[in-house]
Amino acid sequence: MIAPTPARRRQDCLASAFRTAETDGLKFAVMGRFVALLIIALWQAAISRAPFYFYYDALIVLFAVSGLMQVAVSRMGGRWRVLLFVFVLVDAALMTVSLVFPNPLADEAPSPAMFYHFPQFG
């Protein structure tokens, strides 16, 4: 067995340090996401009536699951790390759904500005 050279040991040490820093940063970001989602869920429950905020709670749970899946994929490493980019797309799709589509549980009509998002405007 050939002993690794000092340059190779340094390179391995740096790669390990970068992986550790990236994992710690992702964990910190997910914890920040959970805190923000918890604040939003509590705020939504405080200002809305009971059946209407369940739609938003479902979206909040989906955002939380997406964050947990990012941490799980980052622990797998290797070729699975490409899935982290897929979860960014999942987050973007969830954000689009939450902003564009009205709450189906609400009995109120959508605001007039919502009609500008759909094909009947033109």
What does this structure look like?
The protein is an all-alpha fold and 122 residues long. It has one domain. It is built from 3 helices and no strands. It has helices spanning 6-47, 53-76, 83-100. Helix 1 runs antiparallel to helix 2 (53-76). The radius of gyration is 21 Å and the shape is elongated.
Number of distinct beta strands? 0
Q: What is the element string, with H for helices and E for strands?
A: HHH
Helix proportion of residues, in percent?
55-70%
Shape: elongated
What are its keywords?
single chain, mainly alpha, elongated, 122 residues, 3 helices
Secondary structure blueprint with pairings:
Blueprint: H1 6-47, H2 53-76, H3 83-100
Helix pairs in contact: 1-2, 2-3
Provide a short characterization of the protein structure.
The chain has one domain (6-104). The protein is mainly alpha-helical and 122 residues long. The chain is elongated.
